[in-house]
């Protein structure tokens, strides 16, 4: 009987982000603090099998997820030189800046015991951190990982109904830099994301009014967050916010240590 292995792929939250110069390959230097959350996809893997079977929660927005050779799970298996069948339960909302695809790739690399961040970088700038997890300072273009002591944190995430492309946000950032520079205390991409998706400003105001706190953009967006629980933010029992007849999701999540995603649970 084939043996299955269950691996969790926790979402990535960019706690702070400062963006530096652009390299010749077009990627930007960053200096970020990242952490993983208990909001996680689940992969059930059978070694030597083939293909991906998708199960998706409604909030994951995974209708357009490709399951072919371009999927990051398939690319991670190819990088590791492994074959496997994967049942993917998609929980992390796609297109929200929470690293869902990178988290899945990182889970495969942990399962396959691929530990070199330079290898992981071939799959994307978030994959080296996602393959490690926990809390870390991330520099370079994502390949320089400095693990940091775990800190217990709880956040309320708000995921607007709009998705934002990372490349478009960095392009807008370059334009802003050329006109005089950009620097924020927590996230240098905040203004650029608003240029790419102006509706994000209305959602940020809606979230700020609901919580009484100034939201922080997660990476290139569109997800934003405040520190605290739903209860402390006055949102106990509230799962969404509505603006102009559109609805965005509210999710309470906790920081988790690097061991949270370890491929240690075996299923018969």
From TrEMBL:
It comes from freshwater metagenome. It holds the Pfam family GHMP_kinases_N. GO terms for molecular function: 4-(cytidine 5'-diphospho)-2-C-methyl-D-erythritol kinase activity; ATP binding. Residues 71-112 form the GHMP kinase N-terminal domain. Keywords: ATP-binding, Kinase, Nucleotide-binding, Transferase. GO terms for biological process: terpenoid biosynthetic process. Gene3D superfamilies: 3.30.230.10, GHMP kinase, C-terminal domain (3.30.70.890). This is Unannotated protein.
């Amino acid at each position: 009987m084939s043996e299955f292995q269950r691996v969790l792929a926790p979402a990535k939250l960019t706690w702070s982000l400062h963006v530096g110069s652009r390299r010749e390959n077009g990627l930007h230097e960053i200096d970020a603090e990242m952490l993983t959350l208990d909001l996680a996809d689940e992969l059930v893997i059978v070694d030597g099998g083939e293909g991906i079977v998708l199960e998706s929660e409604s909030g994951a927005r995974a209708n357009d997820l490709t399951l072919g050779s371009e999927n990051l799970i398939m690319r991670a298996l190819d990088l590791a030189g492994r074959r496997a069948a994967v049942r993917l339960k998609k929980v992390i909302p796609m297109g929200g800046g929470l690293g869902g695809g990178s988290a899945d790739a990182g889970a495969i690399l942990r399962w396959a015991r691929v530990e070199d961040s330079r290898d992981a970088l071939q799959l994307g700038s978030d994959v080296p951190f996602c393959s490690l997890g926990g809390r870390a300072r991330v520099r370079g273009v994502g390949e320089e990982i400095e693990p940091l002591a775990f800190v217990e944190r709880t956040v309320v995430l708000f995921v607007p109904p709009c998705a934002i492309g990372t490349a478009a946000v960095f392009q807008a950032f370059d334009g802003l830099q050329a006109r005089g520079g950009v620097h924020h205390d927590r996230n240098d991409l905040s203004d650029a994301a608003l240029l790419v998706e102006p509706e994000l400003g209305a959602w940020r105001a809606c979230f700020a009014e609901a919580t009484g706190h100034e939201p922080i953009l997660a990476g290139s967006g569109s997800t934003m967050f405040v520190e605290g629980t739903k209860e402390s933010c006055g949102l106990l029992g509230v799962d969404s916010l509505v603006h102009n007849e559109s609805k965005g999701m509210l999710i309470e999540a906790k920081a988790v240590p690097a061991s949270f995603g370890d491929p240690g649970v075996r299923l018969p």
